[in-house]
């Protein structure tokens, strides 16, 4: 997977006390790394550079706006701005949520299709950190990574378009994850992801492989009318009401998956469904509709409760 570009995470080093402070705050949500100082782009105005590293929040925000406006006029600065914006997300100390709420509109105006300021072909690489109330609805990105990011508050990606493979590997959605209508043109990686609230993937399309291996869906999960290429749900836990109604898959692999609640495969189609070692809990009330040709076997004790394996009739 891609990593954060050097300017995104390293430009805060060696830019004075404000830069050191901001970088220290960013590291609170990141594993230790070997850092190499780099300088901001040479085309960045010195006055703007001082502002974006200022300790005063209002001055820093003004600098971010100025940097974005410079990039509006000079496309060569745009990816540098996006990378720097990611580093700015870690600034704010105890008021990081409020800081991010003021920061996001600067970038979103340039990522949303149809905006007069839209910048095509941007990459967004977020290192492990806490993001609050993310709203990327209607945005268009070329490449994106959110590996090990913790999404605090509802995360909204509805209608977003990702041109390359997207990674959410190891991420945690502490509230709702809303992806209705999102397009993953080259596929997506959701391995080892924790979905605490509603996981909405209805009407999602994916042109490449998608992985949800070892992820946990704790609440309502909805893949209704989604259209995926080959998809793997290996060792996934579905704890709440789960719907694959009218979903379309290439190869749909559910090896070792566990279904604790309701599940609905009505109208779902695939080039091939596979459920090796998949099982459903039988000592709780649950309505279940499996793909044609698949049924539950004989229940047997397995802590906790009783479970039956899904197998071909």
Number of helical elements: 6
Mean pLDDT: 88
Task: Note the overall shape.
Answer: elongated
Structural class: alpha/beta
Tell me about the largest β-sheet.
Answer: 11 strands, mixed
Percentage of residues assigned to helices: 10-25%
For this structure, the quaternary state is: single chain
CATH topology of the largest domain: Pectate Lyase C-like
Q: How many strand elements?
A: 30
Low-confidence stretches: 1-39
The count of domains is 2
Alpha carbon gyration radius? 22 Å
Strand content: 25-35%
- The first-to-last residue Cα distance is 40 Å
By CATH reckoning, the class of the largest domain would read Mainly Beta
**Second CATH tier, the architecture of the largest domain:** 3 Solenoid
Q: In words, what does this structure look like?
A:
The chain is of the alpha/beta class. The chain folds into 2 domains: 1-117, no CATH class; 133-313, 3 Solenoid (Pectate Lyase C-like). Helices cover 21% and strands 25% of the residues. It has 6 helices and 30 strands. The strands form 4 sheets. Strands 2, 5, 9, 13, 17, 20, 23, 26, 28, 29 and 30 form an 11-stranded mixed sheet that branches. It has an 8-stranded parallel sheet with strand order 1-4-8-12-16-19-22-25. A hairpin with a 4-residue loop joins strand 29 (300-301) and strand 30 (306-312). The longest helix is centred in the first third of the chain and has 17 residues, at 57-73. The protein is elongated. It starts with 5 loop residues before the first helix and ends with a strand. 40% of the residues are buried.
């Amino acid at each position: 997977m891609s990593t954060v570009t050097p300017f995104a995470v390293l430009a805060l080093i060696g830019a004075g006390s404000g830069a050191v402070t901001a970088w220290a705050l960013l590291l609170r949500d990141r594993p230790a790394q070997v850092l190499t100082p780099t300088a901001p782009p040479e085309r960045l105005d010195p006055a703007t550079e001082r502002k974006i590293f200022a300790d005063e929040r209002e001055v820093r925000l003004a600098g971010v706006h100025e940097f974005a406006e410079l990039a509006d006029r000079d496309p060569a600065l745009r990816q540098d701005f996006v990378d720097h914006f990611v580093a700015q997300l870690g600034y704010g100390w105890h008021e990081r949520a409020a800081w991010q709420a003021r920061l996001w509109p600067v970038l979103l105006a340039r990522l949303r299709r149809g905006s007069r300021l839209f910048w095509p072909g941007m990459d967004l690489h977020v290192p492990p950190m806490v993001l609050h109330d993310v709203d990327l609805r209607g945005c268009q990105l070329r490449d994106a990574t959110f590996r090990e990011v913790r999404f605090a508050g509802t995360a909204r990606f509805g209608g977003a378009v990702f041109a390359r493979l997207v990674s959410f590997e190891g991420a945690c959605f502490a509230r709702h994850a809303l992806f209705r209508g999102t397009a993953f043109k080259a596929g997506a990686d959701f391995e080892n992801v924790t979905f605490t609230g509603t996981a909405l993937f209805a009407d999602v399309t994916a042109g490449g492989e998608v992985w949800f291996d070892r992820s946990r869906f704790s609440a309502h999960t909805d893949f209704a009318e989604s259209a995926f290429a080959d998809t793997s749900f290996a060792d996934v836990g579905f704890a709440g009401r789960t719907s694959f109604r009218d979903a379309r898959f290439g190869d749909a692999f559910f090896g070792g998956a566990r279904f604790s609640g309701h599940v609905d495969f009505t109208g779902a189609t695939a080039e091939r469904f596979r459920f090796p070692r998949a099982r459903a809990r039988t000592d709780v009330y649950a309505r279940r509709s499996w793909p044609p040709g698949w049924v539950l076997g004989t229940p047997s004790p397995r802590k906790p409760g009783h479970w039956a394996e899904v197998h071909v009739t």
